[in-house]
Task: structure prediction
Amino acid sequence: MTALLEARHVTKVFGGGRFAKAPGTVALDDFSFRVDAEPPTITAIVGESGSGKTTLARLLLGLAAPTSGEVLYRGQDVQRLSGDERRRFLRDVQVIFQDPYEVYNPFYKVDHVLETPIKKFRLAPSREKARQLMEETLNAVGLRPDETLGRHPHQLSGGQRQRIMVARALLLQPRLIIADEPVSMVDASLRATILESLRQLHLKFGISILYITHDLTTAYQISQNILVMYRGEVAEVGDVDLVVKQPRHPYTQLLVQSIPKADPNHPWHGHEIPVDPSAPVAAVTHGCKFADRCPYVMDISRQQRPPLFRTDERRAAACFLYKESPQLEGTDLEQVMAVPLVPGV
Amino acid sequence: MSSPSHHPITLTPSHPVTLPPRHTHHVLEVRDLVVHYHTTRGAVQAVNGVSFDIREGERLGLVGESGSGKSTIALALLRLIRPPGRIESGEMLLEGVDLLSLYEEEMRRVRLAKIALVAQGAMNSLNPVLRVKEQIRDGLKDHGIQLSPRALADRVAELLNSVGLRRDVANMFPHELSGGMKQRVCIAIAISLRPKLIIADEPTSALDVVVQRQVMDTLLAVQEDLGASIILIGHDMGLMAQVVDRVGIMYAGNLAEVSPVSDLFRAPLHPYSNLLIASLPSLEEKGAFQGIPGLPPSLLNRPTGCAFRTRCPHAMEHCAVVTPHLREVEPERRVSCHLYENEWSRESA
Ligand SMILES: Nc1ncnc2c1ncn2[C@@H]1O[C@H](COP(=O)(O)OP(=O)(O)OP(=O)(O)O)[C@@H](O)[C@H]1O
Ligand SMILES: Nc1ncnc2c1ncn2[C@@H]1O[C@H](COP(=O)(O)OP(=O)(O)OP(=O)(O)O)[C@@H](O)[C@H]1O
Ligand code: SF4
Ligand SMILES: [Mg+2]
Ligand SMILES: [Mg+2]
Result:
């Protein structure tokens, strides 16, 4: 079956090149990942700051071209879609960006952000209906239309701006929503409300969601699958219950331990071997990229890049601690993905 | 005024506020602060009479609803509110001196030297064409501190070191740094004049939990080293539980509750605090994941009575009529809710 959206052996390097003084940053390293149209899924993508999550999102959206490898929408290169295909793509795949400061044009009012897609995709037959649709969507993300419409982006709080982007994605009801940190700046209650509205979209309309986040707790709550990234590669992937509850990769273990618990009597774990935060990132050419921070580092970790080992039916980890387990090809991640909550709609 | 050392600049207001500091154990006292944004549709009452204080060396958390006025308070404390926003009334006493009574020139010296802000989204607003050392230099220069290239290099290296960054980061541009590194640079700039009060507005919400931990450790270590107090603004209740001493919970421009962190998590007083904590997702059970139903009130036309009443499970008739005020109901604990006022009828009379 053709995937809705697929990255095949994608590598993205920033900078570097023949005439550059410094080596480039490898943001994604031979990365493969696919989202099928059916059945719909919610997959969380977590990982270090700078591990390539936003880069992946931008490549999937066709906003940047890979250095090597390809990104395909229904089998076609996203960089070369024909007019009709492109129109369909723009409707099928919606994005909620990480940094809402960047996306807004400060000269336009908030209304513009919502009106444009309504007009472009003819979502409402009349001005009144368009207005009604905008109001309903704003309500769904906890915003008051009378206090939001007519304002410029800088007149809203950080969390309010972020929610406009969620509202825009809700409006279009696409096949796939790529949500890059959609709720990082809102309070816990709203976070729950917004994520729940995304989950409802998934359940009711069979929309798939890629939820990029630093918040493992909400990732655990709303997704079926999780993909943990480390320096442009997959560290661990599979069923969210397995990965979050019994992490296998030492980086995932560190990540889970570092979550600050909402309980003042519970100590904050996650201390690690101190690493130099300014150590150059592009240095590792062979061996495991986590080796310099790993408490379990072995000789082999310094010599070879660990492949994915399938430690469980529905989980794989890129770590030599599990070298007895069968290997999983990087292009076959869907084999360890959990069974979807909803059958195809 | 120029001083080659990094010792704090003393605050010497030139007009009649040279009274001896009132409560020396309080670094900052905020009294009835009101901030409005004047829009074409009317005044947005973003901060509506907020009072709190912060003690020497204390870590105060400020949490609450998105849009409830937290960043506005941070900007007001530095007098950086821009039109159409305006500080309407109130007092902000820093070591006994009302910041609102200072001339702009004096206030400029207070910024960074006395109060430093790590603004929301600060790491994205580093100047992309300046190297790290130039960004630090500019901060010092704004305060009349001119250093020789040698002395500047040493000062920059020392500052970078105190936030766990290598010396050669000084020569890098923002795009060459990871998010965690950029956030450390912002902290380095913030502490460059050894302030008494550091305000950090969501300093780690864009970082992964491992880096968050490193950045927080850095921030708290320099805070202790300086003997400074800190106001930490954020949405991460886990982070609050782990690092602050007291928490103020904001709702619709007011403080709903101020309590020591352990009391707050053990037994929240305000119904909003209670529901907010109840809405925290956990890794223990799945599916228990729900926000507080309803919308916050309009800040343009504030309803009468309690701002939380339309969403409050305990709302009484009285709550629609009389606005509750923040008052001490237990030692060290203040709450703004009629459930804790047994004498309300007298107050409303
Ligand atoms: N336009 C660019 N030019 C140069 N380097 C870039 C660019 N965009 C990203 N990078 C680098 O690529 C790497 C991956 O960045 P990316 O933004 O994808 O990370 P991320 O996982 O989204 O991080 P975060 O969790 O902090 O959002 C980083 O080292 C980053 O500095
Ligand atoms: N320039 C402005 N003009 C009009 N209203 C504004 C302006 N800036 C902020 N506001 C409003 O003031 C209120 C408080 O905003 P503020 O940024 O202080 O909230 P916050 O508590 O920091 O929220 P968040 O947690 O989302 O960052 C919001 O309702 C916002 O819409
Ligand atoms: S004052 Fe009334 S409405 Fe407000 S929080 Fe208390 S009980 Fe609820
Ligand atoms: Mg990102
Ligand atoms: Mg804010």
